[in-house]
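A quick aside before the break. I want you to see a complete sequence-to-structure record at least once, exactly as it would be stored in a machine-readable document. Don't worry about memorizing anything.
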Amino acid sequence: MRMFQFFALLLSAFCVSCNRSPHHIQELSNARTCECNPSKEVDSSNVTTLSTYRTVKGALLASRFNSFEELKTVIRIEYFNDNNSLDSVVLVSHCSNGLEVISVLKSGISQGDIWNARYGDNILDRFSLVFSSPYAVMNRRDLQSVYTLSRWRPEWFGEGDLAFFDLAKTSVLNINTEDLAFKNVRDSTEKGYLNSFNHITAQAFITSCFSEEMADFVADLHERYAHPELITGKFTEEQIKDLEEGPVDNYVDIINNEWGQELGKQLREKYNICRETNWTPELLANYLNDLQSYYSWAFQIGFKPFRPEDEEVLRFSNKINVVMKGGVKSNS
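That is the input. The structure line, written in tokens, reads:
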């Protein structure tokens, strides 16, 4: 029953009608979700797409697409001002069950710029960051907290420390309907369920614990650093054909980031999550099981539930409490 209740909660999120002209890019950035007609978003003439995605709602699996062209029958990608890479903007959207998520990716700083400013020897990199991204400077402590939750830090939390990736990996291991889940062999690879769960899990937690703005900022930092061509659409043929690291994989990541943020907002409200929340093992297990309920609905697969006494739950609940209460202070 929980799965259907949660789906109803998600669809009850506030939606607006969107104008896609270049002059309304900022409005789209703020709206993030819109009402949509799924029949108009998916190319009904593409038999492969309809067969692959007729039971999939919301989240996407990069492993289900065999080409960039096939992906573009499911999501919408629009480039603006792509003659000048400094002013370029890409709008990526996905319509599912009457709700459309929208990502607007613009030129800006990347995680490489923040790394150079923090750890580099050139003081000009630090001054440049102050002027180019005041948000990063003002929120540097939160960014450090997000980084800590996203990475293994055994020097602080002991051998076997967990990150968002490990929670996603455990969800994959929790799948208990293998006959339904792995009909497509590629779904069991790193670019299948694991990658989708990883993006959605991380973005949901960041949104719930900090804000949607922070989650979006962190996601954009990564995409700009790894693949700046995503903004302009100027890919080489080799990149287009690369299903593991090319535009197919990365645009799916962008869409899943948006669905993760939507889930994070709903779960924040459901559990009254704030910065001072005490993440008990019971709360964390319930949160993770709600994520799995969403995956179950989206991909029509089943899961073994997380339990408060699971080692992964106990260790990560301790880590998130330490991080959110400012118990980790380091310049490393």
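Two observations worth writing down. The CA atoms of residues 36 and 178 lie 33 Å apart. Confidence is low (pLDDT under 50) at residues 3-17, 27-31. We'll return to this after the break.
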